[in-house]
UniProtKB/TrEMBL annotation:
<dbReference type="InterPro" id="IPR019574">
    <property type="entry name" value="NADH_UbQ_OxRdtase_Gsu_4Fe4S-bd"/>
</dbReference>
<dbReference type="Pfam" id="PF09326">
    <property type="entry name" value="NADH_dhqG_C"/>
</dbReference>
<dbReference type="InterPro" id="IPR006656">
    <property type="entry name" value="Mopterin_OxRdtase"/>
</dbReference>
<dbReference type="Pfam" id="PF22117">
    <property type="entry name" value="Fer4_Nqo3"/>
</dbReference>
<dbReference type="Pfam" id="PF13510">
    <property type="entry name" value="Fer2_4"/>
</dbReference>
<dbReference type="Pfam" id="PF00384">
    <property type="entry name" value="Molybdopterin"/>
</dbReference>
<dbReference type="InterPro" id="IPR006963">
    <property type="entry name" value="Mopterin_OxRdtase_4Fe-4S_dom"/>
</dbReference>
<keyword id="KW-0411">Iron-sulfur</keyword>
<dbReference type="InterPro" id="IPR036010">
    <property type="entry name" value="2Fe-2S_ferredoxin-like_sf"/>
</dbReference>
<keyword id="KW-0874">Quinone</keyword>
<dbReference type="InterPro" id="IPR000283">
    <property type="entry name" value="NADH_UbQ_OxRdtase_75kDa_su_CS"/>
</dbReference>
<keyword id="KW-0408">Iron</keyword>
<keyword id="KW-0520">NAD</keyword>
<keyword id="KW-0001">2Fe-2S</keyword>
<feature type="domain" description="4Fe-4S His(Cys)3-ligated-type">
    <location>
        <begin position="79"/>
        <end position="118"/>
    </location>
</feature>
<dbReference type="InterPro" id="IPR054351">
    <property type="entry name" value="NADH_UbQ_OxRdtase_ferredoxin"/>
</dbReference>
<keyword id="KW-0479">Metal-binding</keyword>
Length: 671
């Protein structure tokens, strides 16, 4: 480990570290535009110049210079100060004076560093260069005259997203960053280039001219558009969410978020249910008061014939309140797997992502079964790409699709699990940390088939490594793991609920259910959007979306996470648990909590793991189903951008679907 001095401070850094990293270890801030911790080193902006001895008598780029023993680094000498001023003066030669109309204003690296390290004036008086705008799709807005050619977007597209559709053309001062043939970038991670761009060249198109950062209230929350549990920050003004940005969490999402996470927010104010509705004798839904809606439910002589089905976006508190209400009414008919899956849940480790999300990077042989990882969990897909860079081989069983990396496809038959082809079996047997990801395409009939392989993905602890469990189940619903921890599962799945023919059925934000199986039930929809569940309901009770209530969610690996309320629900809508609490009193089965804190305490008393944030480790036992499953699989996610009610209400997600999934073309206004 090299030892060196930075401005007289002695530091020791790991082998292979750069001078820039050594400076940061010493507590010195080094300005940069092109360098990024998660991308390869480009060394082309020259903003990170420092003076190094021994070495040539000139400033050197610290991001590309390896740290070495006995180096002396100086970060604030007159030579360094003059060099940084010169770099900024050159960068600003062609950069337009757009700050008053630029969406990056207030969060712009170029603004901040010009203020801190710039000269304050320019000696350049010639005309500035102008660059035509490029088209990058419905997510990314371009003003390429502002571009300083840091190439962060190019490196992200190639190295992280795996979609090499952004690059540089021409040379010297004529260089331009553009997408391939100026078509929409087809990556589901494209919105991250907006965060990476240190100037205003790439900004968020749906958020253009909406707000300044100092106007926004910032709320910490958890993303519910997939099962990964991306840590996000919700930025709101008044009663409207204006944007969502990722927060850094190395164990979950690093600092990335996919486009659905970022840009579904315009769906939060469209197609909203903001008052109760009751279906009249003519079969039409008509507006009603809360009292009238509750009275209509009370008229149903259900007794204990009551069921509750939880949707994909639901928080644990709402599910616990529903479970408590049904238990008070004498029913245990609760389910969360809306689409008919019925895998074994007697042991939660057999349905969890046991290696953890970050652990995927350590795998040296990966088998994907029934999963289109790119659409079902894009941020797990990026981890697989990192594992490949470390030498992992990837095999897959399922319909062939583009996962952005090399995959050895074995076929589309679950029977292959019982006897893997030789090349896959040998690689997995030889691997120190083999990994199985069992996706939703295989869960219906293939979970039991994975039994034959479950033990093959276990490795005992050694002197150098801890014990390894590479058996992973991938859920695509944010509510799924929390629901399973709360017992929202019947032995035969939702088919058991339908077979019981409940007289009263609560659909808690559940829009993916086959409602024809519940034609004889009185259907109560508790949700926030006028989607399929509301169309089928006899009574609609308007609830809060995830951004409008505090809640607990559990991600695929069993990590308990909590989000706060960013805004209040619209109109007469209320938080889900308060609706169930009020209804319980009308039904004569009063729930024993009056505040959210009391509800959370009661939930933690029943399921202690939900009482505090952090990773829950489940004791391992393989799934107890038949190992004879066979036949072809299909992927349940047919359209990445329209997987839930909020996204289907979002104009941005609708346009992404039309353009990026279905190939429709959009002309810009000038065309």
């Amino acid at each position: 480990m090299p030892k060196l001095k930075v401005d007289g401070i002695e530091v020791e850094v790991p082998a292979g570290a750069t001078v820039l990293q050594a400076c940061e270890a010493a507590g010195k801030e080094i300005p940069r535009f092109c360098y990024h911790e998660r991308l390869s080193i480009a060394g082309n902006c020259r903003m990170c110049l420092v003076e190094v001895k021994p070495g040539p008598p000139k400033p050197q780029a610290s991001c590309a210079l390896p740290a070495a023993d006995n180096q002396e680094v100086f970060t604030s000498t007159p030579m360094v100060k003059s060099a940084r001023e010169g770099v900024l003066e050159f960068l600003l030669i062609n950069h337009p004076l757009d700050c008053p109309i630029c969406d990056q204003g207030g969060e712009c690296d170029l603004q901040d560093e010009t203020l801190a390290y710039g000269k304050g004036h320019s000696r350049y008086s010639e005309n500035k260069r102008a660059v035509t705008e490029k088209y990058m799709g419905p997510i990314v807005k371009t003003v390429m005259t502002r571009c300083i050619h840091c190439t962060r977007c190019v490196r992200f597209a190639e190295e992280v997203a795996g979609v090499e559709e952004i690059g540089a053309i021409y040379r010297g001062e004529n260089m331009q960053i553009t997408s391939y043939l100026e078509k929409a970038v087809t990556s589901e991670l494209s919105g991250n280039v907006v965060d990476l761009c240190p100037v205003g060249a790439l900004t968020a198109k749906p958020y253009a001219f909406e707000a300044r950062p100092w106007e926004l209230k910032k709320t910490l929350a958890i993303d519910v558009t997939d099962g990964v549990g991306t840590n996000i920050r919700i930025d709101s003004r008044g009663r409207q969410v204006l944007r969502v940005l990722p927060r850094i969490n190395e164990d979950v999402n690093e600092e990335w978020a996919h486009d659905k996470t970022r840009h579904h927010v315009d769906g939060l104010v469209r197609r909203r249910l903001d008052r109760p509705f009751v279906r009249n004798k003519r079969g039409k839904l008509e507006e009603a008061t809360w009292e009238a809606a509750f009275a209509a439910i009370r008229k149903v002589d259900a007794g204990a014939s009551v069921a509750a089905i939880a949707g994909d976006l639901l928080d644990c508190e709402t599910m616990y309140a529903a479970k408590a209400l049904l238990a008070a009414m004498g029913s245990s008919l609760i389910e969360s797997r809306q689409t008919g899956m019925d895998y074994d849940v007697t042991n939660l480790a057999s349905v969890a992502f046991n290696s953890t999300i970050a652990g995927v990077e350590e795998a040296d042989a990966i088998l994907l079964v029934g999963t289109n990882l790119r659409w079902e969990a894009p941020l797990v897909n990026t981890r697989v790409r990192k594992a490949i860079k470390r030498g992992a081989r990837v095999f897959a069983i399922g319909p062939e699709t583009d996962l952005t990396y090399k995959v050895e496809w074995l076929g589309n038959d679950l029977a292959l699990l019982g006897k893997l082809p030789a090349q896959a079996a040998e690689a997995i047997d030889a691997a120190k940390k083999p990994l199985l990801i069992l996706g939703p395409g295989a869960l219906k009939g293939g979970h039991g088939a994975a039994l034959a392989l479950a033990k093959g993905f276990q490795r005992p602890a050694t002197e150098s490594d801890a014990a390894w469990n590479g058996f992973n189940v991938l859920h695509i619903a944010a509510a799924r793991m929390g629901a399973l921890m709360l017992g929202f599962a019947q032995k035969g799945g939702i088919a058991d609920i339908a077979a019981a023919k409940p007289k009263l059925a609560f659909f808690l934000g559940a829009d993916e259910v086959d409602f024809t199986a519940f034609t004889d039930s009185f259907k109560v929809y508790v949700g926030h959007h006028g989607d399929a569940g509301a169309h089928a309901a006899d009574v609609i009770l308007p609830a809060a979306a995830y951004s409008e209530k505090p809640g607990t969610w559990v991600n695929i690996e069993g990590r308990v996470q909590r989000g706060d309320r960013a805004v209040f629900p619209p109109g007469d809508a209320r938080e889900d648990w308060t609706i169930l609490r009020a209804l319980s009193e009308v039904l004569g089965h009063k729930l024993q909590f009056d505040t959210h804190d009391q509800l959370r305490a009661a939930m933690a008393a029943e399921v202690p793991a939900l009482g505090q944030e952090g990773l829950v480790r489940f004791d391992w036992a393989p799934p107890k189903l038949s190992a004879k499953a066979s036949g072809p699989m299909s992927y349940p996610v047919k359209d990445f951008y329209l997987t839930n009610a909020i996204c289907r209400a979002s104009p941005t997600m609708q346009r992404c679907s039309a353009e990026l999934v279905h190939g429709e073309s959009y002309a810009e206004a000038a065309e």
